[in-house]
Queue: 2 jobs
Job 1
Amino acid sequence: MRIDRKARTIAALAATTALVATACSGGQGGSGGGDGGKPDVLTVAAWMDFPQELLDRFEEEHGIKVEINSFPDGASAQTVLRNGLASNGAGLSDVHLIELDWWTEMMAVPEDWATLPAVEDRWVDWKVTQGSVDGEIKGYGTDIGPLALAYDSTLMEEAGLPSDPEGFAELVGGQDATWETFLEAGRQFTARSDAAWIDSNATAMQAAINQLPAAFEDPQSGDTLPLADNAAVHELFDTFAQAAQEGVSAGVGIGHADWGAGFQARRWATVITPAWATGIIAENAAGLEGWRIADVFPNGGGNWGGSFFSVPATGPNVEWATTLADFLTTPEAAVEMFLLNGQFPSQTTAMEDPAVSETPHEFFGGQQVGEIYGGLAAAAGDAAAGGFRGVNFAGIQTLVMDGLRRVESGNQDASTAWDSTVAEFDALGLTD
Amino acid sequence: MASPTAAPRRIGFTRRLSRWDVKVSPYLYISPFFISFAIFGVFPIAFNVVVALHDWHRRLGQGDFVGLDNFRWVLRQPAFWTSLENTFSIFLLSIVPQLVLSLLIAAILDQNLRTKTFWRMSVLVPFVVMPVATAMIFSQIFGQFGLVTPLIHELGWFSDVDSPFFQNRFLSHVAIATMINFRWIGYNALIFLAAMQAVPRELYEAATIDGGGRLRQFFSVTIPSIRPTMIFVILTMTIGGLQVFDEARMFDGAGTGGTGQGGSSNQWLTTVLYLFNLGFGDWQDRMGQASAVAWLFALVIVAFTLLNFVLTRSISSSRSKAKKVPASVTRRLVAEARAAGEASARAAREAGVPTLLGVTSTTGDDATQTVKEGSKR
């Protein structure tokens, strides 16, 4: 009798718990449905503006409305994507924009992403290679980031240095420009001006690291190289740290809270400018006259960033999402994106489109920015694909950049900063 | 024959039902809390142990069992120790001004002010503002081209660095502590105010009669009376203050493009921010280490909270001890009161006023009795 009552009590409790548990999980049913059938709406997660006509055209052609889940910047889109992938695709959009800088991270499990059908002759070859994992295409390229230098011709003129784009290009070394000649020009400039030469040497060094074939990891094995023995990175670090100690850099890089204010206060004369940064600079330096793009870049140019549209494999509308990713990366779409945001196309026919090469840029004094970047992209060639990026690339890069920032801020001298960076790296135990 | 057997059974069932009602229902009524606590409280804590003992990747999930390796790894990181220092520095810079100012504001609000509600609501306004928004506004104020920096450069301080509030470690702590203070002072002031309102007004009246000034009343009546509230506030402040995250993460403009990782030399890297960087930052395989940080830091918080609890208790109880009247004083007061009573009684008797005689002597007796009781206590 007693046991019986206890058992019933337990049963009653268990039943209630089950009831509560089912009530809690009741909400999950809705999201999975609708596969195969045509959805009413497709969502795109991105952090740039889209031309409305482009989205309207997709709706006309396919009868599906396109909604943009807009993020203020790449980093917040990255966070949402990280969390979504870690929780079986919860909260993800149908199509995601992925930036090259965190491409490796998102492709840790390639099965997370739908394999996209090949589109012949749309992109430059290296862009397709970057967007593929083990030979399968996982992302359709949007833009690339050919590197150029933007500079303030007013500050150059005040310092008595060449202020026209050709003269400026010659000053930093012309065709044979290296980081040394670039920084040497900076020393000349800072000797004659109160302003710094460049917004941030850390940004410049990041561009330089992008030019290395194997910056931190071995391309064959994927193993991390010991930082203490990494001569190439050490040399770059010393070069930039030395220059930073001499006041060449303002130490306020893109993304820093003071970056926009620094433009307005005319605190620096040059900025490392991948094509996609032209719009960002125009926004931050709004109202200032005299910024120009120079057709020059140290070490023969390169590429920084650029993005891909990818389709999460867990989504309910993979097929339609693939169609949309295809649609958004056609050369026509790329041209419209360029005209709206200044993102330089990765599509070969779009690069040659007169709308890209001949449109004058209002902020940069009517320069035909598209033509300059086209020339720089062609000059960089396949080297623009950049070096090997393994799983630890982003983390080590942050560590090294922080070391350089300590020099820029005057907290440490070059050799102390390098030593402490190496000590931090060793503490991580990546090479044990 | 059938009905008598059926009838007791039915009664038995109802009785059993009501017995269940008595025994089971209370548990059911309180179960929602325990169930949600189990899901959102106990499970994550327990799961954290599992993660901390494994090589855990954000996307790939569980890896190999590594025992205490993650803990050893964390203790080896210079950044972890830096983050602990930063956390305590920011904590001290925020808890002290917070306590002083919120007590002060509460004491002012406790006075008979005109438009009381308006003032009380006003102090809560900063609390309504999202901490992230606060951080973004303050980082502009403390930025290189913000309100404060040009000012202190003008005064010739920190002129060797462009952006002292970002580049100087201590000043970055001051800036972050300012945001925390801005947010929490009003909130704590209202909690203190609620406690102050519950202090019996007679105590103040008595203190006034005894000649205690406002200041004396504040320290000898108000503070000891709101002691339990102060312990509560200090403990929540300790726990919350050690878990600084939003302000530190947003300080250099994360989300608007800044790295949000605590500065290039980890100037304002707090422990929770370090945990976040490990688990959700640029590193892919640091979930296990992040969990280890969480555990280590939880231990630190528990230890520190206990220490604070003991300190707070002993400080406020030692004050109430000091207030105790020494026995010699009591004896003297009793003797004086008696003498005064007798004197007035004698005077009254001599004056020939019989009615007053009784009154004076009783009041005199009452006084002695109260004093005696007081000394006994």
Note: Chain B has three domains: 8-69, 77-322, 327-376.
Job 2
Amino acid sequence: MPPRRIWLSIVFAVGFALSAWADEPAPAAGANPADLKKILKSTADHGKFKELEGPFASGPDVTKRCLECHTEAAKQVHRTKHWTWEFLNPESKQRLGKKNVINNFCISVPSNYGFCVTCHVGYGWKDANFDFTSETNVDCLVCHDTTGSYKKIPGRAGHPAYEEMEVPPGSGKKIKPVDLVKVAQNIGKTSRDTCGACHFFGGGGDGIKHGDMDSSLAAPDKALDVHMDATGNDFSCGTCHQTSAHDVPGSRYQPTAADRDGAHIRGKADKTNPATCQSCHGATPHKEEARLDSHARKIACQTCHIPSIARGGVPTKTSWDWSTAGQKGPDGKPLIKKDAKGHVIYDAKKGDFTLAENLVPEYMWFNGKVNYTLLGDKVSKSDGITRINWFEGSADDANSLIWPVKVFRGSQPYDPVNQTLVTPHTAGDDDTSYWKNFGWEKAIATGMASVGAPFSGKVDFVKTEMVWPVTHMVAPKDKSVRCIECHQQDGRLQHVGGIYIPGRDHVRLIDLIGFALAGLTLLGVLGHGALRYLSHRK
Amino acid sequence: MTTSKSLSALAALVLLGAAGAAHAEADWKRGRVYYRMVCTACHVEKGGSIAPSSKTIAEWTAYLAADKHAKGKDTVKFYVGKKYRDSVKASNKAAEKYADVAEQDLHDDLKAFLSKGAKDGESPASCN
Amino acid sequence: MQRIYIFKRFERFWHWAQALLVIFMLASGFEIHGLYKLFGFKHAVQYHTVAAWSLIGLWVFAIFWHFTTGEWKHYVPTLDKLDAVIKYYLTGIFRDAPHPFRVTRLQKHNPLQRLAYLKVKLLINPLIWITGVLLLFYADWPAWGIGRLQLGTVAVLHTIGAFLMLIFLIVHVYFVTTGHTPLAQIKAMITGWDEVEDEQPAAAK
């Protein structure tokens, strides 16, 4: 065969192969599908950057390189809650944010920085003296990793493992060092995996805190989440939490409870929260049933479209009783109890838990205003239940909608003399940390001293409740809540007051009088008829 | 077509495939979706589900190399193959979504996910 | 006996359509009220709504018909012979006394009927309609400038209307059997033809 013929056949084969691959227009010469995927993904292939060839000794070393091109990135991050862990509520003036609030899960951050900041977008926050102006301490990789291999290690103040190490120490569980070059060269957009690395694991483990966010959302099917469905819409978190300048919208500290502004449109300056349902679907999304749009004026979309949470096989924690912590097993070691499925329901470090899958939320009026009980606020056992936070809202308030919430109930230490919540020093390899020494007094003394708060030395436990809005795990529409589930007595909305719900609400007296009169009338006409019958027989 | 012609066409395809493989980074996320929504979806019913973290990287690598599915009754390659995907795509959205992905690519993706999710992998993975 | 054509074709259609719709709406309405399960809440609401619009449509035609044909005059209340009619139903009916009222084409309802139907038309129907339409459009109240109206109040009034209609229905159905034979009046409403006594009824007083 002459060489020309061979070349022709090669060209033919290439052309044939290419055309068989995809129905896209023929790609530019030399671009096979894998390359094309890369080309269309980004204008920059970080794998080709000399700056990222390494080697890197640490995370901040990578950040330095990032900032050489992305000169303003760290300054953007510095302005966000992800960095400051602080949020000043402009209305209530409460100083919130992870750094300041107390919850009824692991309680609080101060004096536990080395562990808690495993979820901070930075490096080196090991105590209250962290430098919030440091640009190189911004952790770019934790949000922009695409390899899934970058993991911050608890107790390392936000650093991943740079060498092989045992985590936790003495456990025998070896962790391999992260390949920073590989991670840096494969940098990309945030994903369900990167956001989920922290937000799926809030409260100390998978699904514990939120219930509507857990690791099952990393690659969910349609039944679990219509939007993030990995085989369908495949939304990432950022699809809804549309971010600019690194500031992710959609905060729990100041949520949008009722979005009356309708869908966002290109070319229109939309200042409202882009993460609401309405920002895409508008205020009247029900095409077939106008009545449902009427419902949406008083009911959050989530109320009907998230029939239950923790639907992906990962249970969420529903209560946490710190007052029973500290028990030792027969072997003298801190006790751990598990349920039939292997989920921990008692841990000497933490106390008793209850867990639930397919949890039906509770419901309440909510106008977007959230208040917190902060350190120093008066707390008394005689109040019954201390509200860690509470949602404002009522039926009469035009900005309130009925929202689904997860109410997390617990019992946690407080100072009965000073009548305040406390910030125990739980995590740490030292002489006072609760998880190592199991002594509340010492642990709380250390924690309170670290923030300069007074502590009487006395410890008691107070019952607490914390409310979490439910907004993820949106089910397909055929799985949404049925009418009858609310329109009945003892239905989902049985405790939501201030509104008349047909099927649920009755004025008993009216019903009684109505049926009594109807019954008497029936008796009357029957009697009349009987008399007629009898008198005619005579 | 003469033998030499078809041979040269074949050579071109092989060359092209090799070039593609060299460039392509295995997509562990696609492997994850395929493993969970195609492999596990069926395994839940037949044979029980298998967590990636139930084997080590070496075990998974050996398993994929031996290519013996159901104790050798059929092959793993078959279940990653287009023919199988075609046969279930009417009822399986993941198979439908990846219906046109090259077999080798999907096989690599699966391998990448299993290495990552193995007992000694970067992030040991359960079934969900 | 003499046969007179008393209920015209439209009137009969209107009556029976209305009867079916009212009974259906009572059944679906009390389900929506949460008293039992029949169609399922969602369908009960859908059917109730469709039936409501049908009834409103029917009534628009009926009102038009009443005014263009002058039939509305049959509902003008009168006290004439009212006490005699009441007395008849309380005592005379048991003694086979003649009915004090004679049906004619010009007066097809006795004074008691006039009052009862007028009560339906002027009290029960408007009550049910107004509250019902409000309930259909409760989301628009603020836009209509009546945002301060309480949903519960309107719903209770609607329920009261439903009970009044139920009571009317019971009495009405019973009175149908009080013709000169138990089925005579229902026959008249089906065929349109009523049988009346030839001679003048004996004076009631």
Note: The helical segments of chain C are 9-32, 41-69, 82-90, 111-136, 141-144, 151-176, 184-191.
